[in-house]
From TrEMBL:
Annotated transmembrane regions: none
Coiled-coil segments on the chain, per record: none
Organism: Herbidospora solisilvae
Annotated ranges, domain N(4)-bis(aminopropyl)spermidine synthase C-terminal: 92-292
Protein name from the UniProt record: Bis-aminopropyl spermidine synthase family protein
Length: 477
């Protein structure tokens, strides 16, 4: 096949091919990944193009030979104007590049692919160009890309909260000391109580499956306090070869009764995700009056298999439930067969985390397949009951509780940490409530179940410092 035949087959979408040819004929050396990202075109399409071009090679780099450039050189301007590129400060991009480079590596089982430093800076700039941020609140529904930090660097007047399943990311964000509030959440089990109705805007770059996009956007909607003027920004990309996949995702958004207020094509660029051109569009989604009943009726029925790979991928087979053996629970928590112990009450995992279970139980059996990150919180929610976890070999490590105040906090895991901590200081030291409150760090304004793991494991040490009267800010990092 010749280059002209490729152009003819591409039709009106052939601009992306001509853009790639323009790059390869500009005299510079290019890697395949760079051409994919610059053109926002799938790896398969660029590979097909390269097979018909007379390329010269140097290690992993290619270009059209100088003597043949005149046969291929085409001047192609940017396909769609970027509304904020002219506002990008290279020094901020450089700082974000350093922050991203030191961050924990992505996890393929969570569909992590890192956005480029320039992308997260441009996200922050677009938020400021499109919305009024002074005094506003931004909820980041998942934040492996560290958009939260870029927003705080550029718009320190805005409050930012991150909810994420990856405790490593939450710890790293706190280490940067940029004033971002962090909360742990497995969004399949619900949004943290302190994040519900908290934000004016939400932003998410979710797993690119219809269920993943639907779930993360629904949680973003639950996090809005302004139901009339709030927005959810969504990064989502698909290959130009698979429009039906994108259509399924748009159906998931339509099911939530959302208005596509704006779509910025190829706004997001990534180091990876070459199957979709290392790029994703940026959607600005506005809720309607029908969005809220749609969320209420659909969000808890969305599938837990939301990822594209790993044990919770959409293609993964459902594992058989484990045997209880001789264990006789008086409460079943989680994904158990309907015909198992029909006389024993059961509760959903999301309900178990959302509120204390009213029944008096002494033995609890938990089955949470594919939800290993949630296991410490699921066990912590049991209070004083005996708990056995089935269906996993992962050890469940709970935070140490060597003192009465820490035990009080963890025993009331559904209540605010700060309240139990304050009551403990009043009881232990005879302080007034205001005196006790001054010794408690700001991050304690959450339940124990939504605290990141580094806060939970460091809780006893923080309590000890408060008993000694030390500055509670010492454990902020």
């Amino acid at each position: 096949m010749s280059i002209d035949e490729l152009y003819a087959r591409a039709g009106v979408d052939g601009r992306r091919l001509r853009k790639a040819v323009s790059l390869l004929s500009d005299g510079r050396w290019w890697t395949l990944a760079d051409v994919v990202r610059e053109t926002a075109t799938s790896r398969r399409t660029i590979e097909a193009l390269m097979r018909v071009l007379p390329l010269e090679h140097r290690d992993q780099h290619v270009r059209i030979p100088t003597e043949q450039v005149k046969l291929y050189n085409i001047s192609i301007s940017s396909s769609i104007s970027d509304p904020v590129s002219h506002m990008v400060d290279p020094s901020v991009v450089e700082r974000m590049a350093g922050i991203i480079a030191r961050a924990p590596r992505g996890r393929s089982a969570l569909d992590h692919v890192s956005a480029t430093p320039e992308t997260v800076v441009r996200r922050a700039l677009l938020l400021g160009a499109r919305f009024w941020l002074p005094g506003s609140r931004l909820l980041c529904v998942g934040d492996h890309d560290l958009t939260s930090l870029a927003v705080r660097l550029i718009h320190p007047e805005a409050e930012v909260m991150v909810v994420d399943i990856d405790d490593r990311i939450l710890a790293y964000i706190d280490e940067q000391d940029l004033g971002v509030t962090t909360r742990w959440a497995d969004l399949r089990l619900g949004l943290p109580p302190s994040a519900r109705g908290w934000g004016d805007l939400a932003i998410t770059d979710p797993p690119y499956t219809p269920a993943g996009v639907g779930l993360f956007v629904a949680r973003g909607l639950e996090g809005l306090r302004d139901r009339d003027e709030g927005r959810v920004l969504l990064a989502y990309g698909a290959s130009e070869r698979t429009p039906m996949l994108a259509l399924k995702v748009q159906h998931a958004l339509a099911d939530l009764q959302l208005l596509n207020e704006a779509i910025y094509p190829d706004f997001n660029r990534y180091d990876g995700a070459e199957a979709i051109g290392s790029a994703a569009d940026l959607y600005v989604l506005r809720p309607t009056t029908k969005s809220w009943p749609a969320v209420a009726s659909r969000v808890d029925r969305l599938a837990t298999a939301i990822y594209t790979q790993g044990p919770q991928a959409v293609e993964s087979a459902k594992a058989a439930p484990p045997e209880l053996g001789d264990y006789a629970p008086d409460l079943l928590v989680g994904d158990w067969p309907r015909d198992l112990l029909p006389g024993v009450p059961r509760v959903r995992l999301s309900t178990w985390l959302a509120k204390p279970y009213a029944a008096q139980v002494s033995r609890v059996a938990i089955h949470a397949p594919g939800l290993e990150a949630a296991l410490p919180r699921l066990v912590l929610a049991a209070r004083d009951a005996e708990v056995r976890v089935f269906g996993t070999t992962s050890p469940v490590r709970l935070p140490p509780a060597p003192d009465a105040i820490t035990r009080r906090i963890l025993a009331g895991s559904h209540g605010k940490v700060a309240n139990a901590w304050r009551e403990g200081l009043v009881a232990e030291l005879g302080l007034t409530k205001n005196q006790a409150r001054a010794r408690i760090p700001a991050w304690a304004g959450a339940t124990a179940l939504e605290l990141p793991m580094h806060r939970l494991t460091g809780l006893a040490a923080a309590v000890a410092r408060s008993l000694e009267g030390e500055d509670p800010g010492l454990d902020e990092a």
